[in-house]
Amino acid sequence: MPPSNANPRRFSLRSPLPIVLIAFVLVGAVAVTATLLMQREEKPQFTTSVVERGDIENLVTATGTLQPRDYVDVGAQVSGQLKVLHVDIGSEVKQGDLLAEIDATVYAANVDGTRAQLASQQAQLRDRQSQLKLAEITYRRQVNLHKEDATTKESLESAEASLTSVKAQLDVLKAQIQQTESNLRVQEANLNYANIYAPMDGTVVSLTSRQGQTLNANQQAPTIMTIADLSTMTVQTQVSEADISKLKTGMAVYFTTLGSQSRRWYSTLDRIQPTPEVLNNVVLYNALFDVPNSERVLMKQMTTQVFFITSQARNALTVPVSALTFTAPAMPPREPRVEGQTQANGEARNENLESANADRPRTSLPDGERRPRMMPDGGEGRGWGQRRAQGNGENTRRPATVEVVKANGSREVRPVVVGVTNRIQAEILEGLNEGDVVVTGVRQSAAASSSSPSQNRPMGGMPRMGR
């Protein structure tokens, strides 16, 4: 039998069948993978914090300025040219030091003239006193002669009148001398006022007059310089009317400056001025307190950031505020809207449900039944609901709940009692121990964060907008 010329057909990649089979396998694998990924429930990643001991301060903040507590505006009491100025800004002076000299030519001349006038009047006084003695002798002689009928009555009366006149002239001259002495004291005082002395120990913080300037003190005393005692400074702060009711005299306060933001100066609130200042329709009240400045690092007109401590706790158990949920009534689950139902009807139903749940206590939920608040990847949640600690400064016992992570990884809602709170931390009085781990928020992947808002909405509240 002759051999057959027909060869068996070889499998070739050039034929379309293998390519179709390979593509079919790849598409199937991709479909299966996508299905598995879609069916797998993404488990949220919680952010946690450990309960630790620390200090908590609830603060009212305000801005203020530094001023010397004790200062004097040194002025001129007499007019004239400022002849010599012995100090400059920053000069340290002692009480009684000569600060400046005003041209005293006119005042010295006035003193000399008044002294000369006084000397003339004193000479006249001695002359009148001699005349008085003569008049007294003449009058006594006339009296004796009149007793013996050796003189006339007219001579006696004339001697008596002369004595009375001399006495009157002497009294007038004495009064003139007193007036002249008074004028002399004024002139000498004006002469002394031409030399200006330091009224207190301190530092020259400002100069408002220059050497050679003419000063006019007839209407208002011109200010030459200001001397201040920088050893004690006063901080004057302006507090809004919303916060002024939280302040009490004697409460603790501290402040920082722009140049030393890491350093704190502590004091107590001294006084609150009752009269406000209105700036741009904002009512502000002045609160003042003093602080020692022995190092002389605090200067006049420095800007300060002031922190009034309204409440505080030392060495207390602390948790982040974002871990707290106060036990206020929770919002009910949102019901699907019936077709044709108006928004007003829906709002009325929600109000009724909220009223019905007003006294319903919060209970612990098993792990997985409570849906946490989600935030984008890299962020941390600020709490489980809208009812978070706001740091209102009330040092009261307030009930709340936290979610605690157990050793086996499960979570439980635990009631606690909250004390002092601020915007960052809260004091735990009861319910937690040092070292407990509490949930503060939830991380969410970038893919999940782009999903529908209804899927990320926590139970019992509206979705929180990211900041």
UniProtKB/TrEMBL annotation:
Protein name: Efflux RND transporter periplasmic adaptor subunit
Residue stretches making up the Multidrug resistance protein MdtA-like C-terminal permuted SH3 domain: 394-441
Gene Ontology CC annotations of this record: cell envelope; efflux pump complex; extrinsic component of membrane; macrolide transmembrane transporter complex
Stretches assigned to coiled coil: 156-190
Top-level division of the source organism's lineage: Bacteria
Feature: compositional bias, Basic and acidic residues: 348-374
Bilayer-spanning residue ranges: 17-37
GO annotation (BP), single: xenobiotic detoxification by transmembrane export across the plasma membrane
Annotated Low complexity bias: 445-454
Region Disordered, residue ranges: 328-401, 443-467
Pfam families listed in its UniProt record: Beta-barrel_RND, BSH_RND, RND-MFP_C
Residue ranges occupied by any Multidrug resistance protein MdtA-like beta-barrel domain in the UniProt entry: 232-306
Major location (coarse): membrane
